[in-house]
Amino acid sequence: MEISLERTAELLSNNSNIVITAHVHPDGDSLGSMLALDKCLSSMGKNVQLILDDAVPDMYDFLPGTCKIIKPNSQKIKADLLVVLDASDIERIGHVRAAVDAPVLNIDHHISNTKFADYLFLDSDAAATGEILFKLFKHMNTTIDPDIATSLYTAIATDCGFFRYANTSSNTMRYCAELIDFGAKPNLISEALEARPLAAITNLSKMLDTLELFFDGKVAAITVLPEMLTDNDNTEGVINYPRIIEGVEIAIMFKFVEDGICRISLRSARVDVSQLALSFGGGGHARAAGCTVSGTVAEVKEKVIGAVIEHLQADYYG
Amino acid sequence: MEISLERTAELLSNNSNIVITAHVHPDGDSLGSMLALDKCLSSMGKNVQLILDDAVPDMYDFLPGTCKIIKPNSQKIKADLLVVLDASDIERIGHVRAAVDAPVLNIDHHISNTKFADYLFLDSDAAATGEILFKLFKHMNTTIDPDIATSLYTAIATDCGFFRYANTSSNTMRYCAELIDFGAKPNLISEALEARPLAAITNLSKMLDTLELFFDGKVAAITVLPEMLTDNDNTEGVINYPRIIEGVEIAIMFKFVEDGICRISLRSARVDVSQLALSFGGGGHARAAGCTVSGTVAEVKEKVIGAVIEHLQADYYG
What we know:
2 copies of one chain form a homodimer.
Chain A: H1 5-14, E1 17-22, H2 28-43, E2 47-51, E3 69-70, E4 77-78, E5 81-85, H3 96-99, E6 100-101, E7 104-108, E8 119-122, H4 129-139, H5 146-159, H6 170-181, H7 186-194, H8 198-208, E9 212-214, E10 219-224, H9 240-243, E11 250-258, E12 261-268, H10 274-279, E13 283-284, E14 288-294, H11 297-317
Parallel strand pairs in A: 1-2, 1-5, 2-3, 4-6, 5-7, 7-8, 10-11
Antiparallel strand pairs in A: 9-10, 11-12, 12-14, 13-14
Helix pairs in contact in A: 1-4, 2-4, 2-5, 4-5, 5-6
């Protein structure tokens, strides 16, 4: 059932034992939103648990409160409410669904949302789930301390590519201006997010060497193999290299994480790639989507590049 | 003579024949500011000329009005006012000073400003000269059309690293929110600025391979040689690769543009590098500065890296 912002605030206010989760392969928006909502609800005296079916990448350690995030275990948790943040599909929260016995409130901004939840607050105009939470907190008269400001700023800034993507609205900027006044430090946040071990720069050079173009230069792909990654390495931003090449309409990053498993990122300058990702069991936004495909390097690449070209051909030739 | 914002507005309003210039090696702030001020003054019926002692890089062609920018020639121009934007030193405008006979109004945000002008409006708290102009236009009740909004947004966004540098204030964000409402499109601006020819990605890989660390990993340098550049290639952003490495305090990019001439960019996470740049005849901000040094690759690198290490040693050991 889709509900209003007011009803969302009521649901959170009227329940005491609340579990917060978000999608696997966590990013700035999902983690920042979890931590900000925890801080908000905890300050109201509620019993809040943060459960995520994935590890928190090291780069987010600077966010205040990440140590409170734990993985689900075999013990079933009975709660009043399971808040699912930034996930458009129940599958995206992994084992948390089975581990928690509670009605589900889903707060999300993905247009591909499958409306799986008991209660859904969906705002697909919001650049980030963090943006929705900021509106919600204002409505709830939450005191925005520097920790909440840092988490929300990180959530919003990362999901709009530091104010470079089409989802960046004047409200996105205005909310972030307020968050700076509440204590968020844009330079410290971006430095923390950007910091890379030396090996990452060397690895990047190897990744760039895999660049391939297809379909008359309209499709560009980068292939990341396990040997190009060192411990805790992340590939955030690598998709931008094929994306920014003149003439490229769809950029792909193939990231082979383990034998036979490839995580795929798609970026588009114009056409909708969310349906394409959905056809491979993934999801996302019109211009930024992703999916996971199994197979050998050759199989996965052939299958996905074929589908991407077909998608563009359909767009060009109808 | 330092003047107020009000007096700056008066000077512009009370003069009819105005030449606008900015520093050589133009960037988003200098060009965006020139074009926005031209549009503002032209709409007031003034005779405005845009003169710059350098070529406009192709990447800024999307800015409305760049075709109006011409180089100085041997003919002396008599004007009522020469407006020097975003330049902290008279040397930075090249031959324009000799080519124009007019009192100088300097509008700038560089803390290293040498106060060379007849009239100076300096606001070193502003993230960009574009930010000062936006305040000025509000004061002058200028109608901000989408062209002006695009130029000012580009000016501000590029000079604060798309809202990632320490100079990003809540006002920076608020002004940009307003500029979006006035018609600036953050995604189109960033796409235009980011677009790179295919060769740039291949070249980047070669540049990354030159990465060197010094002084216990606190200094990182990248060396760009002419053969790593193709026509119209730009190296904006390349300095970020050494800058983001964990533990690096000062990042250096050596860009050897022609035989014996090296343009050097310095970035710092903490210490002031503007004095360091000044000691080599350059200038800039505390955390982002630059200079030009002559010599062989080995000579230039030895001299500059030596000075950088000395600068850091003085900071560490007093």
